[in-house]
Design goal:
It catalyses: ATP + H2O = ADP + phosphate + H(+). The protein has 16 helices and 20 strands. It is of the alpha/beta class and about 475 residues long. It binds adenosine-5'-triphosphate and magnesium ion. The site of adenosine-5'-triphosphate has 22 residues, from strand 3, helix 3 and helix 14.
């Protein structure tokens, strides 16, 4: 890594020395960013958690969840066990007929665990890819579900920004305009003020944090990572913005050691170490230079082994702590016998997350074999799992779920229409009636109403079929369909 920051008065010779010592092939944890995948699953947006009370009992309607008390309480125990790190290497299976809230429960578990515990959702069919081996996909996802909390003491600059002065030069690469060669930043603590020089990359980080003069920031010297801590406290009266987060001006020196806690997953480490290191002597900003750098090398078992070794070392030294998270495999019946046998052994490995499976299948064939087995899962794996059942909903519960959904989707619906939908839900499925809400709302809007009435819902039901009705029609008109 090139030197990113320097104090103007004394250049950081020591840092350069440590950089030189770094072995090219050695595995490092520096500069690892968490690969957070943001997924917006609108089907479950009304759920905010499991809705349990302090003793762990399910409140009938809470956090968007209705009924299904036993399963929710069981999930509450699982959450406690995961948080106290007593669950690693175990498996849970949600079984139940379609639309009874299995996926919803798993997502509620992830919400209860909070952002510090990794939770990685996948669907059984994701393993089938023509490019990557099935077990490699599973292995990768296993590692995404294992977190590592690393405590590091880092050398940082911390203080209130007193000036930001970019130094611009002519673009020497033939482009138009000017480029920033370095930026001078003034930082002030209670004890002293200092000017430091940062490179354009660090300046970019500063801009991403939206840090301006008067903000308190810290800048990690080795990586150039910038964090904005808040606006300097004494400026409170000046701006009078209530939303601002203020923080005290740091005491002590501008250049100091700070304990920084970083949450990453083993997968983040694999990726960071498979990325070839930029040649520090080469030109980082030349486009040709970047093109010539191979983007990624493959994550091999050897590399994973190296990462594991390093992680073990850090754990032994007390620098890092393992945080086994959750790998959620929905529609687990889609996996085949090779995946199942891999899972058996992976669950027993030293670094194993908690694996939660969900399926709506009864007794069926295990993919890749002729064997019939409950839920399409081989008996030896099934034997290792704790099973949580979800039960069908009553009409009353369906009405409550529909009501919550209507609120989330901002749909006003009349009492008798809701009642009709819930009764319909008992005959067809919860999912079908939830899906009918939006089109019914559309019909009512077309008719110039703002509230969904029984007429809209009935009309909608005649326009669409649920799976059972559709299957009935198929049978009655079998001879007319193409075979
Ligand atoms: N107890 C509940 N409270 C509130 N909403 C629920 C509840 N159970 C299910 N839902 C909602 O009903 C819909 C269907 O539930 P979900 O997708 O979890 O079913 P599933 O058991 O995973 O079904 P499948 O087996 O078909 O995958 C979702 O929108 C879900 O958020
Ligand atoms: Mg599901």
């Amino acid at each position: 890594m090139s030197q990113v920051i320097e104090i103007l008065e004394n250049t950081q010779k020591e840092k350069e020395k440590t950089n030189e010592k770094k072995d090219e092939t050695s595995v490092t944890i520096e500069d690892v960013e968490t690969n957070v995948e943001t997924k917006r699953i609108s089907t479950h947006t009304h759920l905010k958690g499991l809705g349990l009370d302090e003793q762990g009992f399910a409140i009938n309607v809470a956090s968007g969840f209705v009924g299904q008390k036993d399963a929710r309480e069981a999930c509450g125990i699982i959450v406690d066990l995961i948080k106290s790190k007593k669950m690693a290497g175990r498996g849970i299976l949600f079984t139940g007929i379609p639309g009874t809230g299995k996926t919803a429960l798993a997502l509620a578990i992830s919400q209860e665990l909070g952002p510090k515990v990794p939770f990685f959702p996948m669907v059984g069919s994701e393993v089938y890819s023509s490019e990557v081996k099935k077990t490699a996909v599973l292995m990768e996802n296993f590692r995404r579900a294992i977190g590592l909390q690393i405590k590091e003491v880092k050398q940082v600059f911390e203080g209130e920004i007193t000036e930001i002065t970019p130094n611009e030069v002519e673009n020497t690469y033939g482009g138009y305009g000017k480029v920033i060669s370095y930026v001078i930043i003034g930082l002030k603590t209670k004890r002293e003020s200092k000017q430091i020089r940062i490179d354009p990359k660090t300046y970019e980080n500063l801009q991403k944090q939206k840090a301006i003069v008067g903000d308190v920031v810290y800048i990690e010297i080795s990586t150039g990572v910038v964090r904005r801590l808040g606006r300097a406290e004494y400026l409170k009266d000046e701006y009078q913005l209530e939303v601002e987060d203020y923080c005290a001006i740091p005491k002590g020196d501008v250049n100091k050691k700070k304990e920084i806690i970083q949450d990453i997953t083993l997968y983040d480490l694999d990726v960071a170490n498979s990325r070839p290191k930029m040649d520090t002597k080469g030109d980082l900003f030349s486009i040709v230079g970047q093109l010539l750098q191979p983007k990624k090398t493959e994550i091999t078992d050897k590399l994973r082994g190296e990462v594991n070794k390093l992680v073990n070392k850090y754990i032994d030294n007390g620098i890092a702590e393992l945080v086994p998270g959750v790998l959620f495999i929905d529609e687990v019946h889609m996996l085949d016998i090779e995946c199942f046998s891999y899972l058996n052994s992976a669950l027993e490995s030293a670094f194993a997350p908690i694996v939660i499976f969900a399926t709506n299948r009864g007794v069926c064939q295990v993919r890749g074999t002729e064997i019939q087995s409950p839920h399409g899962i081989p008996l030896d794996l099934l034997d290792r799992l704790l099973i949580i059942k979800t039960l069908p909903y009553t009409v009353n519960e369906m009405a409550m779920i529909l009501n919550i959904r209507a609120q989330v989707e901002q749909i006003k619906i009349e009492e008798d229409a809701l009642e009709y939908l819930s009764k319909l839900g008992e005959k067809s499925s919860l999912r079908y009636v939830i899906h009918l809400l939006t089109p019914s709302n559309l019909l009512s809007k077309i008719a110039g109403r703002t509230v969904v009435t029984l007429k809209d819902v009935k009309e909608c039901d005649t326009l669409f079929f649920d799976s059972k009705n559709s299957a009935k029609m198929l049978i009655s008109q079998e001879e007319k369909f193409l075979k």
